[in-house]
Write a structure and sequence with these properties.
Strand content: 15-25%
Structural class: alpha/beta
Number of strands: 10
Radius of gyration: 18 Å
Shape: globular
Strand order of the largest sheet: 6-7-8-3-9-10
Distance between the termini: 27 Å
Bound molecules: adenosine-5'-diphosphate, magnesium ion
Order of helices and strands: EEEHEEEHHHEHEHEEHHH
Amino acid sequence: MLAIEGLSKSYDGKKFALSNCRFQVEAGGICAVVGESGSGKTTLFRLIAGLERPNEGRVSIKGEVVSDDSMVLPPQERNVGYVFQDFALFPHLTVSQNISFGLKSYKKETVNKMLSLIKMEEYAQAYPSQLSGGQEQRVALARTLAVQPELLLLDEPFSNLDVGLKSSLRQEIRGIVKEMGTTMMFVTHDLFDALDIAEEIIFLKDGHMLQHSSITDFAKEMEHPEVLQMVANLSTDARRMLEVMAHREE
Ligand code: ADP
Ligand code: MG
């Protein structure tokens, strides 16, 4: 679905926000990009979406090059859905109007399907200011999914939510994209988000990929001090789960 080759980006021509990134994501997969603040996660997503031009390397979607250092296919022509970190819902539009925003015309059927997918039918006429953080996140997701992107990018979808809400929203989003058959990438600084729903995990640090593993190989392949530190910061239960995974026979 997505192939990233030797991708680098510098905003000022000196310091690289992203360096020589290389990976692929299979169609229908869920891939988490994990890293601390400033590690280049958003830059990677902006490059994939076509919002930035790479200095080197290229982005291909379904075998077609959509970005390299000489050409950037505009965001609206690459069928990639992007949910920004701050949701960016329109405050003066209702939930229904927000969801239908990207459609060429208001399609009641699509809006209703999306409302049912995010289980918010009764909020159709509510305004964003009347919603909780988790509800806003779901509406932002529905608005993006309404145009049926093949690749969905979620930037820090769980970062503004409390723990209980976070856990149910993770599973809910996972269920929704699986039902739609959408390929999804999401950014998080919390490794547990990735362990809970991702099938692949990419670690970024200072723009460099430290590790790229499938969830099944993650525990066996972790070796970078930064990755190990992040693992050490997990809850006891999560660490125990990883230990079991690391010692699991092939
Ligand atoms: P993350 O999303 O992991 O927090 P970013 O991709 O936002 O990281 O940022 C990576 C690096 O690039 C940081 O050093 C940041 O300051 C820098 N950066 C991001 N966006 C810009 C920009 N528009 N102009 C200049 N520098 C930027
Ligand atoms: Mg970011």
